[in-house]
Amino acid sequence: MKKQVSMNVLIGVGVGALVVGLLIGGFVRGDRRDDEFAGRNMFGNNRPGPGMMQNTGSGMMAPATPPALTDAQKAELALGAAVHSPKALTFDVNGGNFYFVPNEIHVKKGDTVTINFKNDGGFHDFKIDAFNVATDRIQGGDMKSVTFTADKTGSYEFYCSVGSHRTMGMKGTLVVE
Ligand SMILES: [Cu+2]
Fold first, then answer.
1. How far, in Å, is the centroid of ligand 1 from the Cα of 29?
2. What pLDDT is stored for residue 62 in this prediction?
3. Could you tell me which of 132, 135, 130 has the C-alpha nearest to residue 116?
4. How far is the CA of 168 from the centre of ligand 1 (A)?
C-alpha cells in the first residue's frame, strides 16, 4: 500500500516536470525563431548575422526545415549505391536544426569516403563512432571535411554530438555493403 502511494507521487512529479519543461521549451523556441530570422535577413542568406552570434547555446535550437537534396547530392548518392570496385567517393552533407541531408548514404566496403559537412545554421558537428570520424564543431555557414576508409560492412549511425541534437533527429545512416 505504502509502495503504491509513493509510486503515484513519483508519477505525479514526473508529469509535472514534463509539462513545465515543455512550456519553457516552447517559450525559448518562440524567442529564438525571431533571432534567426533577423540574422538571415541581414545578409540575405543563411549565414548567421550579429543577432544570432550573440545568442549561443539555446539560441540555435529553433528547428529548421531540411533542404531538398540537390541534383549534385543525388548524383553522389547514386555513385555510392551503384555496383563498383573500391574507389574514392565524396558526399556533400548539409546539417542544421535538427537534420542531416542526405540522412542515408550507401558505399561499398573499401571505399575512401569524404564527407563535406556544411552547417546550414546552428552549432553542429558530424560524427561516425565506428570509423573514428569527428569534425570540429562549426558555426552556421561553415564547412568541414573528413575522409575515412569504410573498411567494414554494416549500418553505422552518423550524428551530431552537440547537446541533444542527436535525439532531436540530427542523425543518419551510413550503409557499407
Ligand atoms: Cu547539431
1. 16
2. 84
3. 135
4. 9
Q: Which pLDDT belongs to residue 148?
A: 98
Task: Pick the closest to residue 65 from 174, 142, 169, 172 (CA basis).
Answer: 169
Grid cell 571505399 in the structure block, residue: 111
| pLDDT at position 3 | 47
Q: What angle do CA 40, 91, 47 make, to 5 degrees?
A: 10
- Given this model, what pLDDT does residue 135 score? 98
Show me where the domains of the chain are located. 2-60, 71-176
Q: What is the pLDDT of residue 34?
A: 35
Region of residue 8 (left: phi > 0; alpha: psi -120 to 50; beta: else): alpha
**Cα of 85 from ligand 1 centre, angstroms:** 33
Q: Which residues of the chain have pLDDT under 70?
A: 1-60
Q: What is the pLDDT of residue 61?
A: 73
CATH of domain 71-176: 2.60.40.420
Distance 161 CA to ligand 1 centre (A): 6
124's enclosing H/E stretch is strand 123-124
